[in-house]
Recover the amino acids of this structure.
């Protein structure tokens, strides 16, 4: 269906993109990627960045450089997109899926403690903790990082949805040992397919770059002593990112304004910022009193060519993850049954938001 109001649409700014490409006329196209990586370092405050062809590839390589391998246990939220969890399986490791808390909808620190204790009682220890800032909402970083330090866990920060979100003035994605962002088509900034890995370690950044380029040795001929991947970002994707990155703060401000307008018009429950947190409000997400109401609203908006999406179906309920370790409290299931993502793109007008809200109230 062609939606009159899409969920999150990023139009291509053709003059801006052409301006970027014109700057690189006669320059090797790899320089665009290098400059995009440098721009992301400036935006995030991270010293090293490696541009990749997806956020999923970034998670895969992040786990790999953190030493995750076959039969290692990785703690991760159950309320997330599948791309957070699939790379754990790529490496033959075992996800431990942890439920949400009610304020931010992110991974519950109490449930993380329970998961670690349960593993210990089985004679096992997790190796890595994956933090996700769901829908751009910063998680309870202080408590989760304290648990990771106490237990000696490496931290991978999946900030795929949260570029521009901050905690105590610091960009989320920069708190862990490794962080990743996604530039998928519907994100606050897009490269129309792509992702990036950031780290404070020059050795890890170098290793990721090596692996992402088919693990080709630095020789005048093609030699490969390790298994690599075709994960590097394309030059045109990087150019698109360069054309959009300068609008990051403006785009975040627009999405926050859209959320606040919905909230004022509808007065519905959503997730909240903890003290010190600033969310990019990637998607405006709300909860209905029950699943039937949510379904009626979804059908009505669909009939009016307005795109919506249910909240994430928990990973522990996905058939592909049947039988994995999980610590559940019912909250992620409640969010899935009651929640909805409303149109949230920064090109949305106040009139369109008011139209969507009026249909919901009707």
């Amino acid at each position: 269906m062609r939606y009159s109001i899409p969920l999150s649409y990023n139009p291509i700014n053709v003059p801006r993109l052409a301006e970027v490409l014109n700057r690189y006329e006669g320059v090797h196209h790899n320089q665009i990627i290098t400059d995009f990586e440098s721009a992301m370092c400036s935006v995030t405050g991270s010293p090293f960045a490696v541009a990749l062809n997806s956020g999923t590839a970034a998670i895969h390589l992040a786990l790999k450089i953190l030493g995750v391998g076959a039969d290692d246990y990785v703690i991760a939220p159950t309320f997330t997109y599948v791309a957070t969890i699939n790379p754990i399986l790529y490496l033959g490791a075992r996800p431990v899926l942890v439920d949400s808390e009610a304020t931010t909808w992110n991974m519950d620190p109490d449930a993380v403690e329970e998961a670690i204790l349960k593993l210990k009682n089985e004679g096992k220890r997790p190796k890595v903790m994956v933090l996700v800032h769901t829908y751009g909402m910063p998680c309870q970083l202080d408590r989760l990082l304290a648990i990771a330090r106490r237990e000696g866990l490496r931290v991978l920060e999946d900030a795929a949805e949260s570029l521009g979100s901050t905690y105590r003035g610091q960009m989320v994605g920069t708190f862990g040992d490794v962080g990743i962002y996604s530039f998928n088509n519907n994100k606050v900034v897009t490269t129309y397919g792509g992702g990036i890995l950031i780290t404070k370690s020059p050795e890890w950044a170098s290793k990721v770059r090596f692996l992402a380029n088919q693990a080709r040795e630095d020789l005048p001929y093609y030699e490969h002593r390790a298994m690599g991947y075709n994960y590097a970002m394309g030059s045109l994707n990087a150019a698109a990112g360069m054309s959009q990155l300068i609008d990051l703060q403006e785009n975040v401000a627009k999405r926050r304004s859209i959320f606040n307008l919905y909230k004022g018009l509808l007065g519905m429950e959503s997730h909240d910022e903890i003290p010190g947190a600033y969310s990019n409000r990637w998607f405006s997400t709300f909860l209905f009193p029950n699943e039937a109401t949510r379904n009626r609203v979804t059908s009505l908006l669909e009939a009016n060519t307005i795109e919506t999406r249910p909240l994430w179906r928990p990973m522990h309920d996905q058939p592909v993850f049947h039988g994995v370790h999980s610590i559940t409290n019912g909250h992620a299931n409640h969010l899935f049954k009651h929640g909805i993502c409303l149109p949230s793109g920064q090109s949305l007008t106040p009139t369109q938001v008011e139209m969507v809200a009026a249909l919901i109230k009707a």
